[in-house]
Amino acid sequence: MSTLTAPQTLTTTWNIDPIHSVAEFKVKHMMISNVKGRFSKVTGTMFLDESNPANSRVEAAIETASIETHDAQRDAHLKSADFLHAEQFPALSFKSSRISFVRDGEFSAEGDLTIRGVTRKVVFAVEGPTPPTKDPWGNTRVAVSATTSINRKDFGLTWNAALETGGILVGEEVIITLDVEFVKA
């Protein structure tokens, strides 16, 4: 009598290194230029199935109040009820539902993005993960870069002001870019 054993999958856990990770965004200002900003407090975990990356998943959270745009007055406005309402909604989050292989070194990560208590499906174009490398302290690290575009109004971010010459003060499309370094648990 022989017994068949199911192939073992190797799923590893990787935690976001918040010191070496950033979430950035850009949005049109006055319909003529881009304003860029960043969130400095990013946390989360990637569960990487090395034998079948499509079985991998990722969960991440961003502290809303960690927004920085190099203008204290604008940062305060973005944290207010007009925009992110950081007091009531202290975190933005993403939880993947499907990882798809695109080509060598490129994936797409579909999942639920929650901003201001509103959850919508989004797809991130992902580059990586990089080959694992050892840091000077013996930890194993990988990195990914991911990008998506959202309409801020879909998440309840509807504040705006009309311009005297026509048009609006804040664009609706927001491009989000993540550069994340993970440490193997």
Q: Layout of SSEs?
A:
Blueprint: E1 11-16, E2 22-29, E3 33-39, E4 42-49, E5 57-63, E6 67-68, H1 72-79, E7 91-103, E8 106-115, E9 118-127, E10 133-134, E11 140-151, E12 170-184
Antiparallel strand pairs: 1-4, 1-12, 2-3, 2-12, 3-6, 4-5, 5-7, 7-8, 8-9, 9-11, 10-11, 11-12
Describe the structure.
The structure is a single chain. It is built from 1 helix and 12 strands, in the order ββββββαββββββ. The protein has an 8-stranded antiparallel barrel with strand order 1-4-5-7-8-9-11-12. It is mainly beta and 185 residues long. Helices cover 4% and strands 54% of the residues.
Brief description of this entry?
This protein is mainly beta and 185 residues long.
Query: Count the helices. How many?
Result: 1
What is the structural class? mainly beta
How much of the residues is beta strand, in percent?
Answer: over 45%
> Major β-sheet, in short?
8 strands, antiparallel, barrel
| Mean pLDDT, all residues | 89
Sketch the topology as an H/E string, one letter per element. EEEEEEHEEEEEE
The value of Rg in angstroms is 19 Å
Task: Spell out the key features of this protein.
single chain; 185 residues; mainly beta; 8-stranded antiparallel barrel; 12 strands; 54% strand; elongated
